[in-house]
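Hi support team,

I'm filing this because I wasn't sure whether my run with zinc ion finished correctly. The job status page said complete, but I'd like someone to confirm that the output block is well-formed before I use it downstream. Pasting the exact inputs I used:
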Amino acid sequence: MNTPHSPNPHHQRHLQYQRTIHRLRMEELVLAIVSVVLIVALVICGIVINNLNKEKAELTDKLKAAGIIVTSGEPSAPTDSANGEATTDSTASAVSSQSASTVSTTPPPETSWTDTDQDGEVDYPYAVVEPTQKTCYLTFDDGPSNNTLKILDILKQYNVKATFFVVGDANLDYLSRIHNEGHAVALHAYSHTYSQIYQSTEAYFADLKKISDAVKAKIGVESKVIRFPGGSSNTVSRSYCSGIMTELSQETLKRGYVYFDWNVDSTDASGNNVPVEQLIENIQRYGGHSSQDVVLMHDTGAKGTTVEALPSIIEYYQSQGYTFAPITVNTPPCTHGINN
Ligand SMILES: [Zn+2]
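And here is everything the job wrote out:
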């Protein structure tokens, strides 16, 4: 007879079968747990990466606004074309020394300046005078235009001096009033056409001489203050001449010019007639954080909202304890990193 422990092949097979089922179920359970853990880990990673990207985007925006990193700097000139305004790039040679209120005429060449964004050391041609108080440099590119007189009226009303980086394809008859009212007439370019001026160093300096001569003919002053079309950090020039901004940023200094970028962008060149509120909000958000703010704005017919926003922009800086000054060769440099 069979005892309970007697080897019964059928019973043993059944036990073995149950053990196998049990083992398989345990393995499935472990697999399920591991899967859940992995999925949770992936979800957490996704959230973390998403947050990091958000932070990166915010930081990038801030840096862009501060001019510390650069996309293309100034938006391309054609934004003004709707109005027939200068679509060329205009830097103007501005002689800051003329503004009766602020500037010495001929600064002594004393200091030397190392630009870490460039190759090696370049002698800075003028003595830099650090302002004793928080200073705002309002700058208007691409003019003069049919908005210039309105801008000048507002500046006069607030007794504020600014800097105009002018172009050749513009109403240069307004230069006298700009100059006579103590603002700096600085050089942007005669032609704002990137493909022309950035095709070679020679082409750039030929254009610079042209606007310099045009300004001198109008106001009798040879300006040494310049702003590169698109800013020194522009990458658009890469399409026309590799490395030209590296070359120009040094060569201009060697030739006695000083170039200025900006560290606060009103973003009025991001489109025509950017809403007034947006311009003011940008200034309030990104401006007022450093002891020297160089504010980028544009003086073209298409920038009517810049004119409308100007009183609020001035009042904001006044409320933050800033004074205003035109840019001169003695103004501490405000430059971007070179990207070409
Ligand atoms: Zn420009």
